[in-house]
Amino acid sequence: MKKTVVFSELLNNQEQKAIADIIANFDTKGKVFISGRNTIKLFEINNLKINIKAFRVPNIVNQIAYKFFRKSKAQRSFEYANKLINLGVGTPKPLAYFEFKTALFFKKSFYISEHLECNYTYRDLTKNFDIPDYENILRAFTRFTYNLHEKGIHFLDHSPGNTLIVKNEGNYNFYLVDLNRMNFGTLDFKTRIKNFSRLTIHKSMVEVMSDEYSKCSGEDYNTIFNLMWKETEDFQRRFYRKKRLKNKLKKA
C-alpha cells in the first residue's frame, strides 16, 4: 500500500518519527477522545499533546474519487488549517497528514494537529444558558463569524461542536475544528446568514446573533433575524426529515 506523508515545519525529526510510529500502531495506542464515524485519539510526544483524527475508509465511489480526482479529507484539513492561520483565524496547529492508497483505491487517512484544551464549545452555549458571561460569549462568537465572512471564509460545517472557545483574560478566542469542508471567496448576504442555520434551535440565541451581526454589518436587524430564523427552521425540517427516512429504511 502506498503511503503519502506531509509534516509541518514545526516538527523536528524525532517528533516526525514518533508520529509515524503512532500512525503505524494507531489501533493499539493512544487515548480515545471521540469514537464514532471517525475516531479521534490523543497522544503525547515530548510534552506536546497531539490530536489524531482517523477518517473512516470511504465508500467505493469515494475511494476512486479520492484516489484520482479529489483531495482527501485529511489533506484538506491540513491545508485549510494552514490557510486559516495565515488569515489570522484560530484553529489548532496543523502538524501532519497521512494517506494510504492502493493502485486503484484510496483507503485510510489521518489528520494530526496540536490538541487544544478549551473552556467551552459552541454546543455548550446551546445547552447551558447559565454559563458565566453567556451573552458576551455569544456576541463575541457572532463577531468571530462575521470576521470569517469578511475574510472570505465559508465554513460549511459551522455547527455546534466545531468551534472551541477559550477564555483569555476576560476575552474569548475561538478556534475552528473539523475543517475539511470550506470554500473561500466573496460571500453574499444570504450565504452569510445561512451560515448560522446549523448552530442552534433556540430563537433567543438567533435573536442575539442577529442583533450582533446587524451591529457588525450595518444591515437591518429585522432583515437578518427573519432570514436567519427561516434558514434555521428550514435546516431543522430537512434534518429531521432525513432522520425519519433513515429510521424507515432501517426498519424496512
What does this structure look like?
The protein has 252 residues and is an alpha+beta fold. It has 2 domains: 2-114, Phosphorylase Kinase, domain 1 (2-Layer Sandwich), CATH 3.30.200; 120-244, Transferase(Phosphotransferase), domain 1 (Orthogonal Bundle). The protein has 8 helices and 11 strands. It has helices at 13-24, 60-68, 73-86, 122-127, 134-150, 189-194, 203-217, 221-251, and strands at residues 2-7, 31-34, 39-45, 48-55, 94-101, 106-114, 120-121, 153-155, 163-168, 171-176, 182-184. It has a 6-stranded antiparallel sheet, sandwiched between helices. Strands 7-9-10 form a 3-stranded antiparallel sheet. A hairpin with a 2-residue loop joins strand 9 and strand 10. Helix 5 crosses helix 7 and helix 7 packs across helix 8. The longest helix is centred in the last third of the chain and has 31 residues, at 221-251. The two termini are 38 Å apart. The model has no long low-confidence stretch (mean pLDDT 94).
